[in-house]
Amino acid sequence: MNMQAEMAQRLAVLNCQIFEFVDESHLHIGHTGNQGGGHYALLLVSEAFEGTSRIARQRQVQDLLADLFASKRIHALSIKAQTPAEYFA
Known about the structure:
It is built from 4 helices and 3 strands; from the N terminus they run H-E-E-H-H-E-H. With about 90 residues, it is α+β, with helices and mostly antiparallel strands. It is globular, with a radius of gyration of 13 Å. The model has no long low-confidence stretch (mean pLDDT about 90).
C-alpha cells in the first residue's frame, strides 16, 4: 500500500471532509539528519477537530500515525488540521 492510501486508511476515523496529501520528499533529497522516510504534508478538514486546540489536533493525527514515525517511514510531516467552519470561512 502506498503512503497516501495508508495514511488515508489510518485517518479514516476522523471522517475528514477534505483529505489532501502531498509527498514533498523530492524537495528534501540530501536533507541532513534524514535516515530514511518521506516528507509529507496533510490538509485535513474534519468535525472531529471541533473544540480542540491546534496542538491537540496535531497530536491526534500524530498518534494515529505513530508507528509510521517509529518505523521511519515518515521522517517529517506538516499537518494543517481545521474544522469545516475554519476551512470554509
